[in-house]
Amino acid sequence: MSNAEQHISVAEHGPYLVSGDVPLRRRSPISSEQGEPLTWRTDGTVKTKDRYALCRCGRSDNKPFCDGTHAQVGFDGAEVAATSNVAERTKRYDGSGVTVLDDRSICEHAGFCGVGDTNVWKMVGSSDETQRRSLLMAMIDRCPSGALRYEIDGTEIEPNLPREIAIIPDGPIWVTGGIDIERSDGAAMEVRNRVTLCRCGESANKPLCDGTHAKVGFTDAALH
User: What is the DSSP letter of 219?
Assistant: First the structure.
């Protein structure tokens, strides 16, 4: 199946319709003793057909797949995420040998940007130290939403991520590798290497995740 045929369509007040035999994985964060997310683990592959529908309302009894519950509960899936280019929304933080790029509007608060008593923004100021700069880049590489990126010598560097969809436990849908996503109104979303889509149904930035799943206690278990 060609990359051009791999596609995600957002159904109006309904699920994510995936076509093109896109692999579906389960991935979870590995955390430190203090609960700080450090890296990602692949927990396995979910068997799918060439086309499948992923729950967007958060109420399906067959998560991560849609079972039609969105229609029964009157799910409001109105898409309000900005349609502008990420470069237009990016704030730049210049350091030594690296520039951090930050788009707060698409952050899903996964927490990979901080560890101990420091974080990416603090480390920019001491990025002349190789260890600091290396840690900063590694932390940004693990940001699932791509809210954080970085440039070196004027060139934006992105991690080499596979074209696939991953389900994060009690969290969002993680789309990687530049898969096309189309809104329900037919508008194409900007193709990006890393995108996190809401699957709790409560994000204020649909179809993107904004971290609300953690606030509302979203769970992969059946809710009714």
Answer: -
User: Which ranges of the chain have pLDDT less than 50?
Assistant: 1, 223-224
- Residue 223 forms part of a structural domain: no
Geometric angle at alpha carbon 147, from 143 and 148, rounded to 5°? 65
Which ranges of the chain would DSSP assign to H, the alpha helix?
A: 69-73, 86-89, 120-124, 130-141, 212-216
- The tokens for 93 are 């933080």
pLDDT digits (tens, 9 = 90+) for 13-41: 999 999 999 999 999 999 999 999 999 99
For residue 47, the enclosing domain spans 3-82+162-216
Whether 20 is in a domain gets the answer: yes
In a domain, 192, yes or no: yes
The burial of 56, by beta-carbon neighbours within 10 Å (0-12 exposed, 13-18 middle, 19 or more buried), is given as: buried
Asked if 15 and 62 sit in the same domain, the reply is yes
**Can you state the percent helix, strand and coil of the chain, rounding each to 5?**
15, 30, 55
Q: What is the pTM of this model?
A: 0.95
